[in-house]
Each structure stands twice: as structure tokens, then as C-alpha cells.
Specification:
There is one protein chain. This protein is an alpha+beta fold. The protein is built from nine helices and eight strands. The protein has helices spanning 3-14, 48-52, 60-86, 96-101, 116-122, 170-174, 197-212, 221-225, 227-234, and strands at residues 19-24, 38-45, 91-93, 105-106, 111-112, 127-128, 134-135, 143-150. The strands form three sheets. Strands 1-2-8-3 form a four-stranded antiparallel β-sheet, with helices on both faces. Strands 4-5 form a two-stranded antiparallel sheet. Strand 6 and strand 7 form a beta hairpin.
Length: 237
């Protein structure tokens, strides 16, 4: 691996990232990737006890963990972009602010033009599960993601183009919204073929209001149900 790629990975891991990987985005439409050809995926795992606490309804602890991890990921993405800029490369940190203000977020479709999950599959860290979550072998779906777009000549991992869920239906069965279609993902597959984002959103808000009084889009049932998540939770630290 070239020095620049290894340096960026080491810097981000030393600052709290659990996964850092690099993906070739040239198979995606140019406007979606802002003309950049490389995506950097950063992931941080939730504390194990946060997900263990979700026995049915979403918890306030899970909601707060999501917000805390997203804040940390924004900081890491901004740091990475600044690091790349300081070495003469162009880079854009796909933070919450950028996604919400730069025309990326379509509220009607409940999707961004370039989801972090897409960058993650191009960077080879996992695949899309049957309820549209990213699934990783190491942490299951127990992670939060961010990404950076850049023109730096970084060494990329092989992309993941197909689901590895097989016949497992754990997340589909656990979903209180019955949003999953039980179809196996492949790269380029329309999200609506996998699950109903609207049904998921409505149910998450209803369940969050019921348990901790906030109209937020958090649930966690499918995350907790994933066998890969369970393996991580049961693994000794």
C-alpha cells in the first residue's frame, strides 16, 4: 500500500475510527460523485451496551449514541479533507451540514444522491442487507458511517457488488414496519426494491415517540437482529 493511503488510514484510526477504507467511485455517475473519483469510508461502532439495551423499542441511549457518533464522524471527515487539502489535493467532507445544504438530500425520496453506504460498498467494507443497512463482517450493522470525496491517488480496496446475506431473514423478520422485501442486494439495485423507506420512517418515529418522547427516525431492531451484529456483541473485547 502506498505511503499516502497508509498515512491517512493511520491518522483516522488514531483519532477513533474503527474502519477506514478507500473506494474507486468511477462506476458511479460523475454528478453524483461531484467529479471526484475516490471515496474514503470511515466507520465507528456503537458501544455494545447501547444495542444490547434495545429489546423492543428504541432507547434514548441509542438515540444519543447515534448523535454522538455522527458528530465524531463529521469531525473525522473534516479533518481528513483538511489533511488532503494540505497536501494539494481536492477533497469534500460529506458531513451532515454538507449533505443537508448542498442539494444532496432529497426529503421526498428520503435519500441522498451519494449515500455513505454506497461509498462503503465501493470501498469494500460490506454489503447492503435486506433492510437496506450496511452489513460488515466485523461489526455487523452496529456502525455509523461518513465519507470523503477526493481526487487524491489513493490505493482502493476491491468493491463489494453482491449481498452475502444468503437465506437469512433475521432483519426482515425483526422489522416492526415490515419494510423489507427479502430480496438480495446487488450493486446498482434500486433501494425501493429492497425495502420501503417511507414505512420504515413512519414506524421509527412512532416507536421513538412511544418510548422516549421524540419524533426521531431511530429504531435499531434490524441492527440488533443481524447475526453478524450478534457475533460482534458476543465476541470478547
Amino acid at each position: 500500500m502506498d505511503l499516502a493511503t497508509e498515512h491517512i488510514r493511520a491518522e483516522l484510526l488514531s483519532r477513533g475510527a474503527d474502519i477506514v477504507s478507500f473506494g474507486d467511485l468511477t462506476s458511479l455517475p460523475k454528478d453524483v460523485r461531484e467529479g471526484f473519483h475516490i471515496g474514503i469510508c470511515i466507520a465507528i461502532a456503537h458501544p455494545k451496551d447501547v444495542i444490547r439495551g434495545i429489546t423492543d423499542l428504541p432507547t434514548l441511549e441509542y438515540f444519543e449514541s447515534c448523535n454522538a457518533l455522527t458528530k465524531r464522524l463529521d469531525e473525522l471527515a473534516e479533518y481528513c479533507a483538511e489533511l488532503l487539502n494540505s497536501h494539494g489535493f481536492r477533497a469534500t467532507a460529506m458531513t451532515r451540514q454538507h449533505v443537508n445544504t448542498e442539494g444532496y438530500l432529497s426529503k421526498s425520496e428520503l435519500i441522498t444522491k451519494l449515500p455513505h453506504k454506497t461509498v462503503a460498498t465501493r470501498a469494500g467494507i460490506g454489503w447492503i442487507g435486506k433492510t437496506a443497512l450496511l452489513v460488515t463482517r466485523e461489526y455487523g450493522s452496529l456502525i455509523r458511517l461518513t465519507s470523503i470525496l477526493t481526487d487524491a491517488p489513493l490505493e482502493c480496496s476491491a468493491p463489494v457488488n453482491e449481498s452475502e446475506c444468503g437465506g437469512c431473514t433475521a432483519c426482515v423478520d425483526a422489522c416492526p414496519a415490515k419494510a423489507g422485501t427479502n430480496k438480495l442486494w446487488y450493486a446498482g439495485m434500486p433501494r425501493e426494491d429492497i425495502y420501503s423507506a417511507q414505512a420504515c420512517k413512519e414506524t421509527m418515529i412512532e416507536r421513538a415517540m412511544k418510548n422516549f418522547g421524540k419524533a426521531e427516525t431511530y429504531c435499531g431492531r434490524c441492527i440488533a437482529a443481524c447475526p453478524y451484529t450478534s457475533r460482534y456483541l458476543n465476541r470478547a473485547d
